[in-house]
Amino acid sequence: MKLVVLLSVVCAVALAEHPSPGAVVDLTDQNYEQVLSGELPAVVEFYATWCPHCKKFKPEYESLATHVGKDFIVARVDGEKYEKLADEFQITGYPTVKLLRKGVSGKESARAEEYEGAMRENALESWLKSNAEGSTGTQHNLEMMHLQPELE
Description:
Layout: H1 2-16, E1 25-26, H2 32-35, E2 42-47, H3 52-68, E3 73-78, H4 83-88, E4 96-100, E5 113-114, H5 121-133
Parallel strand pairs: 1-3, 2-3
Antiparallel strand pairs: 2-4, 4-5
Helix pairs in contact: 3-5
């Protein structure tokens, strides 16, 4: 009985660990919920095999995985092959990079934050590190100030 409990604990710890530290994880409609469990923050690139910008960005994204891959799940989705996933994440062009903070799972695709900077490793790494720390990231609450309040 003790052996069964010990094996259960070891399996639970193994499943909660990073699926592939330092490497890009290819997501499919079969594995994305398991990989994007919310245990770690995740960055996901949506790409198309025909896209020249995606081809140019690929080595930079793979290099990013070696630098931040212990703290983040670095993953990618072929948006042409897995259209349903691309639709769930509201992908309208390639490449598109999304951040899921720690505690946000793949099932909560509406909560993913889109990266809008240069498709360069150092820019993306800076954005990830600065946005993963806070609870709201790049979303800000703005107080609207009207020029003519009497018209309201």
